[in-house]
Design brief:
Strand content: 15-25%
Helix content: 40-55%
Structural class: alpha/beta
Largest sheet: 8 strands, parallel
Low-confidence stretches: none
Number of strands: 8
Order of helices and strands: EHEHEHEHEHEHEHEHH
Mean pLDDT: 96
Shape: globular
Length: 256
């Protein structure tokens, strides 16, 4: 199994990395991708990726953090070239739910992240909340200019949004949200997404899956999401482990 999106630089995981990684390995996790959200976050991630061979990282500015974390396209490209274990750009995107950052600033920085992906051939990890129309428009337009790989992180969007994103060859990551009782519509959407486009994530320390909802999350809890998808797709747990792992290695060009 692979946790394609977590935040090892956040507490309580950062101060307990040895135990967090050991628990991950004990349930069969082979790779963990720790996601950058700010400039300061990246300082920790550069250390974390050297902590254990299974850990990889990204560079990106979360849409909530755009106003206080200015970066140029050149800054992004420079960051991802610093270490060969920095394998993707993000998380970036649009979040119009809270509006912690101005919408135009979010869009501008989102496009900088995209252009950096186009120049480096790194995949883009996209955060999108209450911004389906704008996210799709930007991704579609930019892919027409020059193709790049996209992973929709913690996808909770509509089925229509998902299928429009499939039309432009995006991948989707299922988080613990899919296991929630109120998420029947989301589960139905993932049932309709081809297996070769699905990854799994924890987004830890957030979004613990059932039956751990409300508790601090960590990568080892990915097993509950994998089990849920196996039931949803009427497949064995091993099948889900295999195709989500294969999709991760293909997308991020990492060998197991």
């Amino acid at each position: 199994m692979i946790d394609s999106h977590c935040h090892l630089d956040h507490e309580p995981m950062y101060s307990d990395l040895t135990n967090v990684i050991n628990r991950s390995k004990n349930i069969g996790i082979e790779k963990i991708l720790s996601i950058c959200t700010t400039i300061d976050s990246f300082k920790k991630i550069k250390k974390i990726v050297n902590f254990d061979p299974i850990i990889y990282g990204t560079f990106g500015i979360h849409p909530h953090e755009c106003a206080n974390n200015y970066v140029s396209k050149e800054d992004i490209i420079r960051a991802v070239k610093q270490n060969n274990k920095i394998v993707a750009i993000g998380e970036s995107g649009l979040d119009f739910y809270y509006n912690h950052s101005d919408k135009d600033i979010q869009k501008s920085l989102f496009i900088k992240h995209i252009r950096s992906c186009q120049e480096t051939s790194k995949p883009l990890i996209v955060h999108s909340r209450n911004a389906e129309k704008e996210t799709l428009e930007i991704l579609t337009s930019e892919k027409k200019n020059r193709n790049f790989d996209v992973l929709m992180h913690c996808f909770t969007g509509s089925k229509n949004f998902a299928h429009n994103l499939l039309d432009i060859d995006c991948y989707f990551s299922a988080s613990g949200v899919i296991t929630f009782k109120k998420s029947a519509e989301l589960a139905n959407t993932f049932r309709s997404i081809p297996n070769n486009k699905i990854l799994v994530e924890t987004d830890s320390p957030y979004l613990s899956p059932e039956p751990l909802r409300g508790k601090v999350n960590e990568p080892c809890n990915i097993i509950h999401t994998v089990k849920f998808i196996s039931i949803l797709k009427k497949l064995t747990q091993e099948d889900v482990e295999n195709f989500t792992t294969s999709n991760f290695t293909n997308l991020f060009k990492i060998n197991i």
